[in-house]
Write a structure and sequence with these properties.
The chain has six helices and two strands. By secondary structure, the protein is an all-alpha fold.
Length: 250
C-alpha cells in the first residue's frame, strides 16, 4: 500500500505509484528492450488467451466444456458485432478485431487480481492499439476506394455553402479518433484502479475502515463491469471506423 504516516500524524496517498513501469530484473533504467512489469502482465494475458482459445477448445466436443463454451461465446459475440456493424464484407477482418477484443478483455480482468499490473492503464499501450487501428483503417480506405475515400469528409446532402465547413470539422474529428480511442481506454482503467487504491489507504484508519472497505467492494464491482465494457467500446469503435473505410460515402 502506497500510504505512510507523516510526523504530523496524517496520511500521504500515492495512488499512482501502482502505474510506475519497473524492470523485472535489477533497478536500472527502462530501455527499449527492458523486460518490465508491463511486459510480464501482457505476456500472462497472451498465455491466458492461448489457454482458453487453443488448449481449452482443442477437443471441439459436441457437448462443450466450460472453457470451450466461454471461447465459443466470445467468438460468436464478436463475429456478430463485426457482421452487424461493418456488413458481410467486413467479416474478413474479423481476426484482427477479435484479437484486439480478447487482448484488452483479458488484460483488463487480469489487472483486477491483487499485486497485478494493468497494461491498458498505460497510454503507450493503448496508443499503439488506437493509432494502429487508425493507420490500418486509413490505408485500407484508400486501397479499396482510392480518392473516393475522401467522400467520407464531404457531405453531399448538406447545403453547398456548409459543405466546406462540415468537411473541416469532419477532418479534425477523423484525426482526433486515435487520440480519443486510446485515451478513453487508458483513462477509465487508470481512474478505477486509482480510486480503489485511495479507498485502500483510508482502510488503514480505524474510524473509517468499514466505510472504506465497503467503498473498495463497490468500486471493485464497478471495475469488473468497466473491464468488459471498455473492451467492448474499443472494439465496436474499431468496427465503426472499419465501416467508414469500407463504405466511405455519406
Amino acid at each position: 500500500m502506497a500510504t505512510d504516516a507523516k510526523s504530523e500524524g496524517g496520511l500521504v496517498f500515492h495512488p499512482l505509484d501502482q502505474f510506475i513501469v519497473k524492470p523485472l530484473f535489477g533497478d536500472g533504467p527502462v530501455g527499449l528492450m527492458t523486460v518490465t512489469n508491463v511486459t510480464l502482465w501482457m505476456g500472462i494475458a497472451v498465455l491466458a488467451i492461448i489457454g482458453v482459445f487453443v488448449l481449452g477448445s482443442r477437443g471441439r466436443a459436441t457437448i462443450p466444456t466450460r472453457m470451450q463454451s466461454i471461447a465459443e461465446l466470445i467468438y460468436g459475440f464478436i463475429y456478430k458485432m463485426v457482421e452487424d456493424v461493418t456488413g458481410k464484407d467486413g467479416v474478413k477482418y474479423f481476426p484482427y478485431i477479435m484479437t484486439l477484443f480478447v487482448f484488452i478483455l483479458f488484460v483488463n480482468y487480469l489487472a483486477l487480481l491483487p499485486m497485478s499490473y494493468s497494461p491498458t492503464s498505460m497510454i503507450a499501450v493503448t496508443a499503439i492499439m488506437g493509432f494502429g487501428v487508425f493507420i490500418c483503417v486509413t490505408i485500407l480506405g484508400f486501397v479499396l476506394n482510392g480518392a473516393a475515400f475522401l467522400g467520407l469528409f464531404w457531405m453531399k446532402d448538406a447545403p453547398l455553402v456548409l459543405r466546406p465547413i462540415i468537411a473541416v470539422i469532419e477532418v479534425i474529428s477523423y484525426f482526433v479518433r486515435p487520440v480519443s480511442h486510446s485515451i478513453r481506454l487508458a483513462g477509465n482503467i487508470m481512474a478505477g484502479h486509482a480510486v480503489i487504491k485511495v479507498f485502500a489507504g483510508f482502510a488503514a484508519l480505524t474510524l473509517v475502515s468499514p466505510v472504506a472497505i465497503l467503498g473498495i467492494t463497490a468500486i471493485y464491482g464497478l471495475e469488473v463491469l468497466v473491464a468488459g465494457i471498455q473492451a467492448y467500446v474499443f472494439t465496436i469503435l474499431t468496427c465503426v471506423y472499419l465501416k467508414d473505410a469500407l463504405h466511405p460515402a455519406h
